[in-house]
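It is worth pausing here to work through a concrete case rather than discussing structure prediction in the abstract. The textbook approach is simple: state the sequence, then state the predicted structure, then interpret. We follow exactly that order.
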Amino acid sequence: MKILLIHPHDIYSDSEPWTVRIKNIAKEFVKRGHSVKLIYFPLNSDEITPPFFSDGYEVIPLSRRHGTKILLKNI
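Step two, the predicted structure:
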């Protein structure tokens, strides 16, 4: 089964430590054989990278900025 998790915070920021829960949920789905994608929004727009894999699941950073161009890019 394919699982898509979307978290509105930066999962790698020390200022948002509660995000450890969503990463643990993603790991548990992977352990059970699911294909997982975790979308998150970095605090710093300079940290937006291409999607990458971490702990067996795909991590997709998207911009927090507002505007039509950003919305279309995120989509």
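Step three, interpretation. The chain has a mean pLDDT of 89. Strands lie at 2-6, 35-40, 52-54, 57-61.
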